[in-house]
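Subject: Purine nucleoside phosphorylase structure
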Amino acid sequence: MITAPALAALPGIRHAFFTREGGVSEGIYAGLNCGFGSGDEEWRVAENRGRAMERLGLPASALATLHQVHSPTVVEATAGWPRGQSPRADAVVVTAPGTAAGILTADCTPVLFADAAAGVVAAAHAGWRGALEGVLGATVEAMTARGAVRGRITAAIGPCIGQPSYEVGAEFRDRFTAVDAGFDRFFAPGVRPGKFQFDLPAFAAMRLEEAGVGTVERQSWADTVPEPERFFSYRRATLRGEPDYGRALAAIALAG
């Protein structure tokens, strides 16, 4: 698992960006696939999630993950939801010690947040759509509504698709520049004519800074696409013609 130094330095905070290493799944899901939404065997996913929580010193039932829909919707969790009852949202806030806020990714940006002094943590799933539509700012708003202070919040960006791997078309770039012409700076010329390379983690970092987050941790960045032994990747699976892909877990909790 990967930890962010800025979060690791905070008292009473447990967190991890889990890689695909160490689980019981096999085949295209090999390793620590934590996504029930994949086609993997459910018992394997449940075992993987339990192993991940054990690494954080928590029971499997403490993990609160979502039915992710690429939205700016944020919810609060006081415990893990029963299987099949997770709310449709893309960020979860926790103030209850011993409950882990978790999200799943396979190229999208996982972001973990904490204000240790206020006792508020959160996890957000920010793909391009969620990042553009404001899920990260909405997460900060939800945290401040529960006592966090913007300038005291630490946010860490975990492994996601990197700019060299994220080729997009002109219509994709146009979605961003239609919102703000200045967003063009997140697109580099592509190798192929008419294509561009989008810098998703840099865009997410900008959104966090825009929301007034005090510390944005960038040391945990890694490109998920070119490292098949470490990371799951939707784009890599698509390019290979694979029918599905595993999901990596990122989670954060207040020590009980």
